[in-house]
Amino acid sequence: MTTLCVTVTPVVDIMAEVSLIDALTMALAWELEHDSSVVVLGEDVGVNGGVFRATAGLQSRFGSDRVQDTPLAEGMIAGVSIGLAAQGMRPVAEIQFMGFIYPTVDQIVNHASRLRNRTRGRLSCPMVLRAPYGGGIHAPEHHSESTEAMFAHMPGLRVVIPSSPARAYGLLLAAIRDPDPVVFLEPKRVYRLNKQNVEDNGKALPLDVCYILRQGTDVTVVTWGAMTFETLKAADQLAKNGVSCEVIDLATISPIDYETVLESVEKTGRLVIAHEAARTCGVGAEIAAIVAEKGMYDLHGPIRRITGYDVVMPLFRREMDYMPSVSKITDTIRAALDD
Amino acid sequence: METIADFEIQYSQFLNPEGKPSTDVPALAKDVDKLLDMYRHMTETRVFDTKAVNLQRTGKLGTYASCLGHEATHIGLAAAMQEEDVLAPSYREYGAMFYRGVSMAEILLYWGGDERGSDFAGPRNDFPFCVPIATQCLHAAGAAMAFQLRNEARCAVSVNGDGGTSEGAFYEAMNIAGARKLPVVFMVVNNKWAISLPIEMQTATQTLAQKAVAAGIPGIQVDGNDVIAVRHWVERALARARKGEGATLVEAVTYRLSDHTTADDASRYRKKDEVEAAWEFEPLIRLRQYLNDLGVWDERKEAALLEESAAKVDAAVQTYLNTPKPTVESMFDYMYRELPEFLEEQRDHAVRYGNSGGGHHG
Amino acid sequence: MTTFNLPDLGEGLPEAEIVAWHVAEGDSIKTDDPLVSVETAKAVVEVPSPYSGIISKLHAAAGDIVATGAPLVEFADAEDGAVAEPVAVSENAATVVGNMPTGSEVVEDNAIAGGSRRRRQGRIKATPSVRTEAKRLGVDLAEVPATGKNGQITAADLRRYRSSASRAKLARPATIAARSETLRGPRRAMAQSMAAHRDEVALCTLFDDADINEWLNKRDFTARILRATAAGCAAEPGLNGFFNAESMSRQTEARVDIAMAVDTEDGLIVPVVRNVAEMSLEQIRDAVAAVKQATLDRSIAPQDMLNYTITVSNFGMLAGRYATPLMVPPTVAILGTGKLQHDVVAVMGGIEVHRRIPLSLSFDHRCVTGGEAARFLAAVINDLEKPQ
Fold it and tell me: Which one of A65, A86, A94, C147 is at 20 to 30 Å from A218 when CA atoms are compared?
């Protein structure tokens, strides 16, 4: 098998004010430039630059072999990615919306997550499957899914969800460089919500680690994706009433960095988990179980979750009622402090 | 109305069931070394297959999918491939895998419930067995794309059955292969039965080869019991692909002489006389006859080959039976390249409760 | 007057430039008639009129850049009005669906990756149920000794703490208003802790006497008893410590902290003299005096009555030679001293009258053997019988 040389071109580091979606484009461009085994593929990712413009400009820069517009077949996108990855490439495949990710599940669960184990490490699957996920953009049916728990349940996969431009940049680089498959879910509601100064220096952020967004002493609030915004707003509001929240962005949904959460709960004694996805068997349930098992003697009261309801995400006229709002989160935190 | 597109499917057979060559046999049919090489592999595979079924029936092997009757399709296919090509099999193509360097013991380990059977010592880049039907076709397409992107003169080959041609993945793979002119050959082994569903109920198409038309790639049908035809046409398809001319579908028509697997009882759904009739067409007979007629084979050589094969198979069986169980911790050690922290506790737990290493098969 | 703001033209684009107005101020317009052409980052978009009415004001001129959501045009007497939520006005060949909030605010975030990954020591560990119970009882968990396997304060620890602490409560006894009196304060605590003792402890008592005839100094009684107790602990540390029945474990202490049962008019209190093994007789004497003073003037604090390793009870002030005193679990021993008497004793074939202290050593036979108790008592007697 041919070994590919990874060229490292000296690049002038650019510090840019970028939105989350732009940060993704930056990361993809960096890796396409520096690793010739990286291939971007998906529907409308090439000429059109992706329906959210995540891959804008990449095809004209890197050519239509490395940034491919594929036929319309999600299972095919996943299966071809596995074939590419098993034979030495690093595919970064895009599924246009998480609502369309389900045909990939056969390939991702039956093959991507198992190839290394099945062959005792002889073959492996260093691929990334990207998809915009989550609600709140007034989109039609199926365009607001938040079913990360499904993938988090599968051994052999990583599930990563960035919540800021800087973390989108660093975590996507890490995901592409990871030797194992990563499902990379992007909270589309915050694709362009704000900007951050992100240095285009090719530095990856660590996977398998939580990010503490706000330090506090009274209650630990674990969240991820777009919910970090509502949670931080809730924390700000509560701070005015003298409540000090520690807000943790899970970032890597699987495998979970329990140690950071447990250490925080040890300090605060209280845990609230906020996620957009439906309640039952959501990732919050796993976090609650682990903290109940390993942090029971630090808890002052029950662990609480504020989540989406166990219903199909309503069409957009009611979608904001489905999702945890700032007031739902502040009320849950207050209830936890009352226990 | 005017016809704006139509299609044509060609059929090829060079050796008839009695072993008599047709008028237009290719040079391959005169290449005694190649023919003997293929015949030996086919015989060896059959001896292995018989033994494997017996192992299952005596409780020494788990469920096993017999390849009885498929020897020509499998060996013809593999003999046409280059070493640097990549095979994406389903779960029955032992002849092809042996030809490419997978060991008999490895196959037995797989069906014996040990992942080490898929850690091929020989063809390091070939895909392992693929149980979800036809999903391997997409892996072959992806592999072919990798070769294309890297400008390597390598091809990918997937093998699936008649049942697999109904799966979405099969169409999706052919479609992308056509759209991007991928260097891949889709081998469809039509053995007439998908467990209990006969080909007539599987699809309305007259041939499986014509499914290629839907993807805009050429498809041909060959007699799958004629190893010369199989090898010849796969060689052509691979040459085409290697030249950058794109993918081909090769349908090899044969018959599943065995049950679907050892867990299946085909007598529940197909008639004995149909199976008996199919035996007339099986591949070893006709090649043996042809070699006899060429004067390069005889009963003494046959007996010697059978003995050699039996010895080889027995040695493999011994290796397999003497392989101790994998360690308990091995179920953790290949999930990721590095064991994530959270799995360490579980691994320790499993090790504490399990036994490491000891104990033979079973 | 109805204001029409520049709608989100899809893809969350933040702004658009006015290319050309198709109306002027004062014109009347019908719904869906062309209103204005604007250019976004991607394309020129025709914006139709959302209302019928008269154009009363244009908020921007051709060439101006208008932010999404900013006022574009005013309608007088607009009809066919309200659009409930902003919906993308034009598909714009944009394949994104819906409406994405856009902002250009630049934010900092100073996320810390992974925390310090070090678990703190010295935090109070207890389940929520124990914490709730402690709160209900008004107990500060910081005061409660923890015996749980994971360093946590168990429910039993809380119970034990409470029964020993409440023995120290200086509650005034209730006036007797009727024939029956509800037990309160130390008396109530006594009822509870004695019941607990009966249910748990395997009580065994060893009786003996110490002959103090040779004492040079006839006072210092308490200090001598305490020193002798420490001597017993030195000889048999197994009686100086705790027994945990739940975990079937015992914990012997090197330090000797002796609780002295003191009867006051407000009930029995049990102050602790600490680290007796390290003290000289003078120091013990001073410590005892200090404790007695604090007891009398009620300056004794709750923590002065906790965390003792063995108890001494001078029950025989007025009467009673021997008794079976009860220790408080988790401690495993209590030494009782009875009424000092002059006894007739046999001495080398003759008779003399010596002062003797009757001793009653109760121990928890679940974890202390008879032999250990005997050796302990022998060491106590040995020390007590020294002249000084």
Answer: C147
Cβ contacts (< 8 Å) between B116 and chain A: which residues?
A: 120
Q: How confident is the model at residue C285 (pLDDT cuts 50, 70, 90)?
A: very high
Angle at B318 between CA B328 and CA B57, to 5 degrees: 85
In-domain check, residue C101 = no
CATH top-level class of B11-323: alpha beta
Inform me whether the pLDDT recorded for B359 exceeds 60: no
Closest CA to A188 of A278, A96, A252: A96
Alpha-carbon span A27 to A5, nearest angstrom: 19
Compute the average pLDDT of residues A227-254. Answer: 97
Q: What are phi and psi of A219, to 5 degrees?
A: -155, 140
- To probe the interface with B, which of A100, A119, A256, A293 has the most B CB atoms within 10 Å? A119
Nearest to A120 among B119, B141, B176 (CB): B119
Contact C107 A137 (CB under 8 A): no
pLDDT digits (tens, 9 = 90+) for A78-87: 999 999 999 9
Question: CB-side exposure of C282: number of CA atoms within 13 Å?
Answer: 0
Domain termination residue (choose one: C25, C52, C79): C79
Residue C84: closest CA among chain A residues belongs to which residue? A317
Q: How far is CA B88 from CA B91, B185, B334, C230, in A?
A: 10, 10, 21, 82
Q: Inform me whether the pLDDT recorded for B14 exceeds 70.
A: yes
User: CB B176 to CB A119 under 8 A?
Assistant: no
* Cβ <8 Å between C128 and A339: yes
Question: Could you tell me which residues are beta bridge partners of residue A208?
Answer: none
> Quick one: closest CA in A to C146, which residue?
A297
Exposure string over C347-380, b if 16+ CB within 10 A, otherwise e: eeeeeeeebbbbbbbbbbebbbeeebbebbbbbb
Beta bridge partners of A196: A18
Quick one: average pLDDT of A198-211? Answer: 97
**Helical residues (DSSP H) of B3-134, grouped into ranges:** 32-57, 71-80, 94-99, 104-111
Select from A297, A299, A316, A319 the residue whose CB has the most chain C CBs within 10 Å, as the one to mutate to test that interface: A297
Where are chain B's structural domains? 11-323, 326-362
- Give the whole-angstrom CA distance, residue B350 versus residue B347: 5
* ipTM for the predicted complex: 0.90
**Residues of B with active-site annotation:** 256, 260, 269
Q: Which residue ranges form the domains of chain A, and what is each CATH number?
A: 15-199 (3.40.50.970), 211-338 (3.40.50.920)
Domain end among C79, C113, C138: C79
Q: Residue C107 and residue A299: Cβ atoms within 8 Å?
A: no
Domain that holds residue C60: 2-79
Determine the pLDDT at residue A2. 47
> Given an 8 Å threshold on Cβ–Cβ distance, is A76 in contact with B150?
no
Token pair for C363: 């121990």
Q: Can you tell me the distance from the alpha carbon of C340 to that of C70, in angstroms, rounded to the nearest whole number?
A: 100
Percent of chain C residues topping a pLDDT of 90: 38
In a domain, C364, yes or no: yes
Residues of chain A found within 8 Å of residue C119, distances taken between Cβ atoms: 262-263, 266
Q: What is the pTM of this model?
A: 0.73
Quote the Cα angle for C248-C251-C257, to 5°: 140
Compute the average pLDDT of residues A316-324.
Answer: 88
Q: Assess whether pLDDT exceeds 70 at residue C1.
A: yes
Summarize the confidence of residues B201-214 as an average pLDDT.
Answer: 97
Tokens at A308, concatenated: 């989406």
Q: What is the CATH number of the domain that holds C48?
A: 2.40.50.100
Cα of A48 to nearest chain C Cα, Å? 9
Q: What is the CATH number of the domain that holds C296?
A: 3.30.559.10
Which residue, among C367, B221, B145, B80, has the nearest Cα to A81 in the 3D structure?
B145
- DSSP 8-state code for residue C68: T
Domain count of the fold of chain C: 2
